[in-house]
Amino acid sequence: MTVDDYILSHIEPEPDYLYRLYRATNIRLLHGRMASGHLQGRLLKMLVQMIRPHRILEVGTFSGYSAICMAEGLDDDGRVYTFEINDEQEDFTRPWIEESPVAHKIEFIIGDAITEAPKLGIEFDMAFIDGDKRTYRETYEMALSLLRPGGFILADNTLWDSHVVDPAYDHDQQTQGIRAFNDHVAQDERVEQVILPLRDGLTLVRLK
Length: 208
Prior knowledge:
208 residues, alpha/beta
């Protein structure tokens, strides 16, 4: 048994619906491992239960796994507004979201969150950034502008498979985007931040 197997056998089980979604994601979509999966999904649910947000902004829906996990942790009148810029993703993702047990707590929107999310006119309590790595810094600034004081931003993939410390990836645009984001947040006096070495790196940011 690996350490990962041990961890998964000692945390809240993955709900059957999410197990089937994760499996379908890996069978039918390219880069299926981009979905949050069992461990991160249970963490997202628990963080929502701890933070107790009313409105959550997600940038990067992909197959809907993380949106469903966060919605699980919300009160019944809470909402996740999740944006996916790739319209080719809609045919797969929308049915999985709409048929989920928490569909009434999720608004699935096709479009660029950087330009479209501010048009909602909503102040968010929490944001989860998991979209285009090349524009993480711009996405962060957009999300921060919509966040209430004391609110939280979670950013996924911030260690980028350790590429952030590998000179071989100095000219890779996605690695450059993650590095720029990490440097920017580390120097941002408006927030407190911590990076968790979970999976591909998860940064937690709190707006002061």
